[in-house]
Amino acid sequence: MAKFATERPYADPEAAARRLVQLAASIEPVQDGRIHIEKVNAPFMSTLGGNGSEFGAAIKYAVQQGWLELHESGTYVRLLTPGKNLLN
Fold first, then answer.
1. Biggest CA-to-CA distance, the chain
2. CA distances in angstroms from 7 to 12, 29, 32, 39, listed in the order given
3. What is the domain range of residue 61?
């Protein structure tokens, strides 16, 4: 019996992180450039079809690259200059 697996577009953390940065850039930040995590999580998972582990890997990758800053509470991110440079 053959198994059919659909390819996950965000299985690659870099691709997922780049898409996450695009999402973050499209959201109007609140005070001090804060973007509430649910504002990027919801569209990533519902509209783009990503899952929780892909979202987590994307956040981690984006933080490691200096594209996003994740607050220690995990409640918001900030788009950093290197992340903004990806959009050009």
1. 55
2. 11, 32, 38, 25
3. 13-85
The number of domains in the chain is: 1
Q: Are 10 and 31 in contact (CB under 8 A)?
A: no
- Note the pLDDT tens digit of each residue in 23-77: 999 999 999 999 999 999 999 999 999 999 999 999 999 999 999 999 999 999 9
Residue 36, amino acid: H
Whether pTM > 0.70 for this model: the answer is yes
Neighbour tally for 58: CB within 10 Å: 26
Provide the CATH number for the domain around residue 73. Answer: 1.10.10.10
Q: What is the pLDDT of residue 7?
A: 79
* Domain membership flag for residue 4: no
